[in-house]
Specification:
The protein is mostly helical. The protein contains one helix and no strands.
Length: 80
């Protein structure tokens, strides 16, 4: 029984060492271990002023409420 356990352990050790060596040679060769990545430009702290054709004191404010026509009924959906 001890001889069988020794044989199994020896075969397992040899196969583990061989698998590490073979995987290192074929799966990830040393020339393919580097990758190229995109680099980003640093963010600038300067802010350019927007175009005065669009951003000025005479421009339309899109946040204002717009009322089209007059509606005498303050609750249009009540009572129908």
């Amino acid at each position: 029984m001890r001889k069988e356990v020794f044989t199994i352990m020896t075969v397992a050790l040899i196969s583990a060492v061989l698998s590490i060596i073979i995987s290192g040679m074929f799966i990830t060769p040393s020339k393919n271990r580097s990758q190229k990545v995109e680099t980003v430009e640093p963010i600038s702290t300067t802010f350019e002023q927007p175009n005065s054709d669009y951003f000025n004191s005479k421009s339309v404010n899109p946040a204002q409420n717009i009322e089209i026509g007059t509606d005498p009924n303050s609750n249009p959906f009540e009572g129908r």
